[in-house]
Structures are given as structure tokens and as C-alpha cells.
Amino acid sequence: MQTNPVGMTNGYRAPRTASAANDRADLLDAMVEHRNYLNRVAFSILRHAEDAEDAVQAAYLSAWTGWASFRQQSSLKTWLTTIVMNKALTEVRKRRQTCLSMDADPLLMADAEWQLSVGQVTPEQHVIREQSVRRLQERMARLPQPTRTIVMLRFGQDLSLEEVALSSGTTRSSVNWHLSRGCKALRKSVARRRMLI
């Protein structure tokens, strides 16, 4: 077999090894060459095409910025696969935390409780709940615009994560990030208020 100058052997490109990976051009080539494979790896973990694409993009950014940390003990494909898997698994952990924190957050559950108990409250309870709703609206108004909109669509309009992503023109992983950020800010606001009381 003859090898041409660009590493092709009779039309077949030999797999890249760490010793051949000596500059970022090799990294870019590996990213292009293994993109479909890396998307499949991310999808097998996340089970959502857009989230898988986001995980691969985040992995590419990490690989590019962390190029100096590549120890050349494995192929670029193996290194990129490891980064993609870590990004996808991090997203899975974030989803679990988001789901748990949404269920446990009394502010986010207040609206549902309010709807269940309308007509079964005393005037005092009604005033207290109105004040709680007003404080929640004030706290919501302090959230940055994309986060506020996404939190309102999810909890105010009771849309699914996919519906929020479509309505806001963003990805599901971005929706999860904004929801996590918004809930965290609202919890901090409640904690500060409780400390003042």
C-alpha cells in the first residue's frame, strides 16, 4: 500500500493516533470526521437530538480550549468521546436536580395550591396568598428577560419543556438552564426575605 501526503492509504484514511495529533488542525479534522459518531454517543445518553447536539458542541469547545491537556495516550476519537460522554452525563445530572428542585420549591407550587383551594379559604388566608403572589411577581420581574420568559412559560402557562423550547425559539437544554437559574434566584430571594423577618 502506498500512503499519500495527507495520510490516505488507497483512498482510506488511517485512524488518527495520539502521536499524529500534533496541532489543532488534527483536532478539527477529528471533529469533522467523528461528528456523527459523537452525536450518536450523546443521543444514546440524553435521548433528545437537540440536547445531544448541544452536548457535542460543548464538548468541542472544551476540547478546543483544553487542547493543551490532551496527553496523547489515546486517539483523538477516544478523547473526544470521553468529553462528549462527560458533557452528556452532566446534562443528565442537571435534569435530575432541576426536576427535584421544581417539585420541592414552595414558591413554584404555590400557584397549583392556590388553584386547588380557591373558594375554601378565609379572608385572612386570601390576603396572605395575594401578598405571596405579589411578592413572587416582584421577584420574577427581577429575573433577566430570557429567564423570566422561560419560567413564565413553564410554570405560568404550564407548557412542557419541548413546548417552552419551541415557543422561546431555543433548545431544551437552554430551557433547562434558564429554569435552573430562575428557580435558584427565586429561592435566594425567599431565603433573604426570611432572614430579614
From TrEMBL:
Key words, A-Z: DNA-binding, Sigma factor, Transcription, Transcription regulation
- Residue ranges of every copy of the RNA polymerase sigma-70 region domain listed in the record: 33-96
Q: Does the keyword Phosphoprotein apply?
A: no
User: Which BP terms in the Gene Ontology apply to this protein?
Assistant: DNA-templated transcription initiation
The lineage's top-level taxon is: Bacteria
* Single GO term (MF): DNA binding
List residues of the RNA polymerase sigma factor 70 region 4 type domain: 134-186
What InterPro entries does this protein map onto? RNA_pol_sigma-70-like, RNA_pol_sigma-70_dom, RNA_pol_sigma70_r2, RNA_pol_sigma70_r4_t2, RNA_pol_sigma_r2, RNA_pol_sigma_r3/r4-like, WH-like_DNA-bd_sf
The entry assigns this protein to a family as follows: Belongs to the sigma-70 factor family. ECF subfamily.
Q: Quote the protein name from its UniProt record.
A: RNA polymerase sigma-70 factor, ECF subfamily
Organism of this sequence: Terriglobus roseus
